[in-house]
């Protein structure tokens, strides 16, 4: 099986030296990568892993792994689409924290309100926006939903989506995760709540198509359960 794993977070560029990103470290994606590497070594069932990772996330080092550093959402979308079209991908584990918004333009409050003095207009051109600007405004727009294009591009790929919420009732977490599964034709969705993640602890719920779910308590358990369910699904589809 050839597969894709995405991990870490995307970074949306403001200028050549500044970005907007999120707090994802890619540790769960790395744990998932490692269990599939072990599968490649022990059984040979995994032939190749394209590992698409954010700039701050570490990629596993192994001959079976092709690391693909990712910048923003459009970079992720382009690389995912390219690989899905060029290769027969058996499974995609989409664990990356994808930015919901991307930079549309940068302006100032005076310019936005039409009160800027033309003789003292702030220069927003160049590779680095001046740090002397007092009222910089970043206008953002919705990013494309990358997960929605995966099954449209490659219907036969087993897709594992991820959903992170914060401080919601358990039933709501499962409901939201299940809606993500249905909307994007996922085979599984890993739902977790930020309040249940801490040092050495990461409770996660792997939701199935019938809305049943597996419960895990740590990154390693989550990674192992995803490996197990993906391989079971692949075996059932042959």
Task: Indicate the overall shape.
Answer: elongated
Ends apart, CA distance between termini: 12 Å
| Element pattern in H and E | EEEHEEHEEHEHEHEEEEEH
Task: Name the strands of the widest sheet in spatial order.
Answer: 5-4-1-6-9-10-13-14
Note the total helix count.
6
Structural class: alpha/beta
Tell how many strands the DSSP assignment holds. 14
Query: Roughly what is the average pLDDT, rounded to an integer?
Result: 92
Strand content: 25-35%
pLDDT < 50 stretches: none
Share of helical residues: 25-40%
Walkthrough of the structure:
By secondary structure, this protein is an alpha/beta fold. 34% of the residues are buried. The strands form 4 sheets. An 8-stranded mixed sheet has the order 5-4-1-6-9-10-13-14, sandwiched between helices. The chain has a two-stranded antiparallel sheet with strand order 2-3. A two-stranded antiparallel sheet has the order 7-8. A hairpin with a 5-residue loop joins strand 13 and strand 14. Helix 1 packs across helix 6. The model has no long low-confidence stretch (mean pLDDT 92).
């Amino acid at each position: 099986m050839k597969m894709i794993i995405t991990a870490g977070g995307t970074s949306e560029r403001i200028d050549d030296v500044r970005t907007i990103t999120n707090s994802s470290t890619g540790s769960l994606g790395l744990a998932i990568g490692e269990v599939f590497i072990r599968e490649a070594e022990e059984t040979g069932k995994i032939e190749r892993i394209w590992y698409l990772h954010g700039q701050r996330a570490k990629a596993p080092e192994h001959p079976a792994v092709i690391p693909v550093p990712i910048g923003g959402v459009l970079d992720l979308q382009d690389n995912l689409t390219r690989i899905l079209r060029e290769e027969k991908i058996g499974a995609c584990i989409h664990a990356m924290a994808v930015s919901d918004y991307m930079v549309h333009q940068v302006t100032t409050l005076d310019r936005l309100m039409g009160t800027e003095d033309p003789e003292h207009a702030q220069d927003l051109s160049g590779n680095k926006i001046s740090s002397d600007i007092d009222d910089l405004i970043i206008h953002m727009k919705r990013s494309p939903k990358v997960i929605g294009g995966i099954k449209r591009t490659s219907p036969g790929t087993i897709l594992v989506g991820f959903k992170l919420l914060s401080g919601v009732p358990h039933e709501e977490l499962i409901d939201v995760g299940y809606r993500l599964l249905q909307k994007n034709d996922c085979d599984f969705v890993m739902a977790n709540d930020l309040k249940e993640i801490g040092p050495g602890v990461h409770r996660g719920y792997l939701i199935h198509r019938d809305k049943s779910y597996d419960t895990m308590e740590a990154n390693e358990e989550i990674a192992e359960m995803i490996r197990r369910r993906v391989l079971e699904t692949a075996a059932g589809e042959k």
